Amino acid sequence: MNKRNILYILGGLIMIVASIAAFVNPLATVTTLAMIIGAVSLVRGIMLIISYWNIKEEFNFKAKFMLFFGILLTLFGILLLFKTEFAINIMTYAVAVWFIVEAIQNFFSIGDYKKFSSAIYTTNIVINILLLLFGILLLLNPLITWITVSVLIGLILLVAGLNYLIYGIVFRE
């Protein structure tokens, strides 16, 4: 067995262990993900602010937009890094309200679909009822979002880990 195969097997095992950790402790998974996103947002925000100083004379509107977006990303990154649970809750509630508002807005324009096709009209009603119910469910129990994200991350890590493990065992060069 060569070094590359060993690395694939080792990588696969690490991913499988990480997937188990994601399944066992969903809050830690979401918190870690939020902190990674926070760090990336902070770095990108600072990069945009620095870029503003380099182009502010040449591209006035673009520079101002970069500065504005850079400040927003920096603040978002700081919030995720230092007030992680609060930021996660805010995002969860924001998504819930978004789903509810989106469903209500779609109900107002649903008549347009009836003119086109009764099947699409009916499908649209069902989709918007589900969207409304999911939004209400998220408002009532935001923990569902955290668990869902953790399970998805766990599944992705498990599948990728198994794939690496199988590759490392089967393909010997």
From TrEMBL:
Keywords linked to the UniProt accession: Membrane, Transmembrane, Transmembrane helix
A single Gene Ontology CC term: plasma membrane
Chain ranges passing through the membrane: 7-27, 33-53, 65-82, 88-108, 120-140, 146-170
Keyword Membrane: yes
Domain of life: Bacteria
Pfam families for the chain: DUF308
Xref: InterPro entries: Acid_resist_chaperone_HdeD, DUF308_memb
The protein's name: DUF308 domain-containing protein
The species this protein was found in: Soehngenia longivitae
